[in-house]
Each structure stands twice: as C-alpha cells, then as structure tokens.
Amino acid sequence: MAFDHTGESRNEAIPGIAAAARIPAMAQPVTLIPGDGIGPELAEATRRVLDASGVQFDWEVLDAGAAVMAKEGTPLPQRVLDSILRNKVAIKGPITTPVGVGFRSVNVALRQTLGLYANLRPVRSIPGLKTRYDDVDLVIVRENTEDLYAGIEHMVGPDAAESIKIITRAASERIARYAFEYAVANGRRKVTAVHKANIMKLSDGLFLESCRTIAAGYEGKIAFEDRIVDNMCMQLVQKPELYDVLVLPNLYGDIVSDLCAGLVGGLGVAPGANIGPDAAVFEAVHGSAPKYAGLNKANPTALMLSGGLLLRHIGEQAAAERVEGVVRAVIAEGRTVTYDLGGSAGTSEFADAIVARLESGA
User: Which positions are annotated as active-site residues?
Assistant: First the structure.
C-alpha cells in the first residue's frame, strides 16, 4: 500500500514510519489550524471526515496566518507552536504567504522551528480523475530544514541580492535514511536521489555523497540511483512509471513535488506531511485562494488525504485506508464532487457524501 507507514521495531527511530497499529484508549489530541482564505472551509470538511473515520479526536483549534498577523503582528503566535509540541500532531489549512514582501512563510517557520525535517508528498493516480497519465504512484521525500530555504539572504549593494545555500552532511544523511526506511516499511523498490552535483559540486555533491553513504546500508534490499534535477523533471514527464521514491534537497523537492502532483491531477488532490522527531504537521500544499473564500466551492481532497496520512502516523492504519478509499471512490463515481473535479457539488456537499459513506460502512 503506497501510503502505509508501518515498519519493524528497528525503524522506530525514524518518525512517522514505524507507528504501531493501535486503538487509542483516549481521544487523540490534534492541533487544527484552519488557515486563510478557503482554509477554514477545507479544515471543517476534513475534520468532519476524520471524525467519521471511527477514531476519536480532541481538536484544539488555533489560528495562524495573515489574519493573525494583522491583529497580533506575527502570523505564527507562540501558543500555536506550544499546542503542536504538546499534542505532537497538527493539521493545517493553506496559509497565505506574501510574494516578495511581508512576512516569511508560516509553513517554512513551522518546519524549521519544530524540526520537521522530512516533507512527505505521496502522489497517486485517482480513478475517474482525467489526467495524461494512469497508475502514477510516486513518493517525494524532501529535506525540509536547510538549502536556500534557510532564508540566509541579503542585499549586496542597491541592485543585487545574495542567497546562501546550506547543505550539511547530517541533514542530508538524515533525509536519505528517512527515504530508505520509508521504502523498506512500505514495500517500495527503489530510491532515487535528485541533485545538481554536476554544477554545484560542493553543496549538491555533499548531498549526493550522503545519499550514497546511506544507500550502501540497504544494498540488496532497496535499489538506488541518482538523477540530475533537470533531467529528472523531463524523465518524470516522459516516463513516471520508472520511478518510485525520490529524495531531494529542499528547493528541488519543492519544485519536483508540484510537478509530480500535476501528473495525478494537481495540488488539489495531493496530500502532504511534515514530520520530525517531536511533532508532525499535515497539510494541503496548495494556496489559500482568498477570492473563493466563503463560496463553498473549494476542493478539500488534498487536506482530506493529508488527514489519511495523519491517521497512518498515529497508527490508525485501517481508518486511514477507509478514509482514503472512500475519498477515492466518491471521486471515481463523479456524482458529488467539486467543480474542479468535474462536478457541481460544494465543499460541504462533497464532505457530506464522504461522511455518509464512512458512517454507513459502505
């Protein structure tokens, strides 16, 4: 199963991979961050679906993003970080990031502050959703804490800017190990390291060297190869069936994960997770689309499937399979889906159809 996170006990040091299947004795605490724009509608639809999964949740709802920035002078109050660290698990709707000006990305701040070093982006074809490809099944594992996203940049005089790319052996080996452990735990066949070491021989060269070092420990279990990032993009468009798990530095991972989402229908159907040793944040990675806020039109699939990843992370494998299976089935039928999926249903009506099927056990 592509999104299964189960594993042997020896993998327990890798967060999000070796969660043991269990039924919690008490409700699972989860921090819920509704987000900006269409975020609150998507978050409410997703909460309803997760509540219908059979797992009990204790939701702690806290705001972050543009609206909070306007009121409090920060888009990410400390109380939000404290809640995530206390609950260990969070799910968030999309948050607006100003382009070129304004505050830095809340998503980046969450990843760096909470040490969410692994960005997990599974992409899988959905029957009934028309795309150029069939049977795509890829997993993108993106290093989440360094590279150009470290935000070390400054002006060099009035007309030039400089950004510093940081690649370390420790972070590179850590994300490579996560990718290989994920592959082992999920029955995947191959890990491909993606880089630009032909040009950036020191930084990307170090990333590639680190991946090769980790790969040596899985020889005979998981195949390993590497690709230059521009060639990788072409290969994915031409023949995505040749690839399985991709591991990438931060910037390339951001770009390639969106490309892969496009293979299966776009960001609206692609889940995401940010996982670290102390917490995990699950999210839809598409924008907040403020012009559609409050119109009951937005597609909640990506956030709902991110909820499926959340269920797997806390060990609720059966519930995750039910949620993912019902979401995919409702889309395949095409009767009660949002406009971008070829239907006329609203956000809430789409959620109604999924909740009804989950509650009926169908």
Answer: 149, 196, 230, 254
